[in-house]
Amino acid sequence: MDYPVLYQGDQAGSATLTHQGGRIQVEVSCRRDNRGLFRAYLLCERGEYPLGVLEPRGERMGLRRTVRTGELQALGTIWRGELRMSYAFSSQTQWQPLAAAGDFFQRDPLLSRMLAGTGEGLWRQERNGRQLALPYQADRPFPMVPLFCFAQIQTIGGQSYAVYRFDKEEHPIFP
Question: Are residues 169 and 128 both part of a single domain?
Fold first, then answer.
């Protein structure tokens, strides 16, 4: 069975799962991105399954892994694959554009709905989670008002942002 693999909301490749007795062969193939090292995950109904780091394969990058059927069945229905940059090759982790801020959240539909219609933002991977930066102007409504105490106002590229930190489970982290 084939599943799309997304990176920042765009399809970057696919994951093919082949049943082999009590095991499942998982093969991920994505377009190559030379900005860093990427990890692949399967996002499922009851959590996520880490697959590992993708390796360069010509113009693509990928991995092959065999897992026990029961490990994936315990997580319920598989929805899709996802890539996350685990290490950026530049000396500092770069902010990446997020065309629709609501796409930042993969696990929490309430937080995703809270951001619906807010437009663009920025995000970056951290060691233990991710950061979300939403444009901030003192004369406009504060982004994500219910979480205002979790925000820090920072200047990024000459513009003010309300920056939020979230752990891997998408829980806000108090600054």
Answer: yes
- The encoded tokens of residue 144 equal 């994500």
pLDDT tens digit sequence for 91-135: 456 888 887 776 788 777 788 788 776 767 898 888 788 999 998
Characterize the bridge pairing of strands 78-88 and 2-7: parallel
Render pLDDT for 107-116 as a digit per residue (tens, 0 to 9): 777 887 887 7
DSSP state of 54: -
Which residue has tokens 């007795």? 21
- Identify the domain containing residue 151 by its residue range: 96-173
Q: Can you tell me the distance from the alpha carbon of 135 to that of 155, in angstroms, rounded to the nearest whole number? A: 10
φ, ψ of residue 7 to 5 degrees: the values are: -135, 120
Residue 41 carries which side chain, given as an amino acid letter? Answer: Y
Alpha-carbon dihedral of residues 170, 83, 97, 101, nearest 10 degrees?
A: -40
